[in-house]
TrEMBL record:
Keywords for the protein's UniProt record, in alphabetical order: Magnesium, Metal-binding, Transferase
Transmembrane helix recorded as keyword: no
Listed Pfam families: polyprenyl_synt
One GO MF term attached to the UniProt entry: prenyltransferase activity
Biological source species: Agromyces kandeliae
Family recorded in the similarity comment: Belongs to the FPP/GGPP synthase family.
UniProt KW Repeat keyword: no
Name of this chain's protein: Polyprenyl synthetase family protein
Family matches, as InterPro entries: Isoprenoid_synthase_dom_sf (IPR008949), Polyprenyl_synt (IPR000092), Polyprenyl_synt_CS (IPR033749)
Cofactor(s) needed by this chain: Mg(2+)
Entry's Gene Ontology BP terms: isoprenoid biosynthetic process
Amino acid sequence: MAPAPRLVDAVNERLEEFLADRASILRSISDDLDPLAAFSERFLSGGKRFRARFCSLGFDAVRGSRRGHDAAATAERYAVVSASAALEVFHAAALVHDDLIDNSDTRRGAPAAHRVFEAQHRDGRWAGDGEEYGRATAILLGDLLLGWSDELLDEGLAALRDQSAARETRVEFNRMRTEVTVGQYLDILEERAWLTRPEAEQRFRAERVVVHKSARYSIEAPLTIGGAIAGGTASQLEALRAFGLPLGIAFQLRDDLLGVYGDPAVTGKPAGDDLREGKRTVLIAIARERLSTGQRRLLDELLGDPALDAEQIRMLQDTIRDCGAVDEVETEITTNTDRALAALGSSGMDREAARDLADLARAVTRRES
C-alpha cells in the first residue's frame, strides 16, 4: 500500500498537469484570463489533502492486497488519483463560494478569492465598484472549478475497464455534490431563520448542517468514491459509510471549535471568525441550552456582528467555555470517533487499510487547523 506522502505527490502531480492544461486553454482564449488560472494554481498548491487520502484509502480498503501491476491495475490507480484530485478541485470551488457567502477576508492565511479580484480592480483603477467585481469574479471562478472537478473525475473514470464501477463512482460523486450544496443552503438558512425556530430544534438543526454540509462531503463521500472505483459491493460501501459518517461529524465538530478558539497563526483565519460570521453551530446550540436567559440574550445579540472587537470575542469565548459547551463538544468528538473506529474494527476491510484509516481518523479529529 502506497504511503500517504506518495499518494499526495501523485495527486499534486495530477493537479499540476491538469491545471497547466486548463491554463493553456484559457490563454488561448485571452490573456485576460491569466488571473483565474494563476489563482487556481496557487490555491490548489496547498492544503492537507484529507479528501484525497480518504479516497485512496477507500479504494485500498476494498481492493487491498488484491491489487496487481497489469494494465487494469494501472487504470484503476489513474482513476483513484484523478478522483482524489477532482475532490480537491471540488473542495477549492466550495471554499471560494463559502468565503464569498460568509464575507470572509482570508483563507489559509491569504486573501480570499473575492478579495484578490477586488484588489485587482482597485489596483487597475477600473470602472465601477471593486467589491461587486470581486464577488462576481469569485462566483464565476467557483463555477469554473466545479466544472473542472467533473472533467478530472471523468478523465479518470474513462480509463476504467469496469464501467459499472465507473457508473457507481459517478453516482457517489453526484450525491456528494448535491448534499454539500443543500447543506450550504441549510447553513445560511440557520444563520437567518433561527430566531423563528423552536428552541427545542436548535441543536437538531445545527447537527443536520454538520451531516449534510461537511460530514458526508469531507470523509464519507471520498471513502465511498474510492471504494466504488475498486468495484466495492453494496455491503463494502455501507461499511465505509458506517466509519465515515461519525468520523465526518467529529471532523466538523473539531472545525467548529477551531472556528471559535483556533490560533490564527495556525488556522489562517482571524480569531473567533465564526462568531463574527454568526455561525449557528452545534457548539452555539449547546451553549444556548446551558446559558442563563440573560447570557443567551447577549450571545444572540453579539453573534454575527462583523464589527466584534478582540475584547468582545474573548468575552464570548469565555462565556461559551465556562458554561461547559466546549467540554460537551469534545465529548461528542470522542464519542463519534470511537463509534467510527468501532465500525472500522468490525468492517472486514483490508487490515492494512483499516490501520491507516484509524491513524488518519485520529489526525483529522485532533488537528489544530
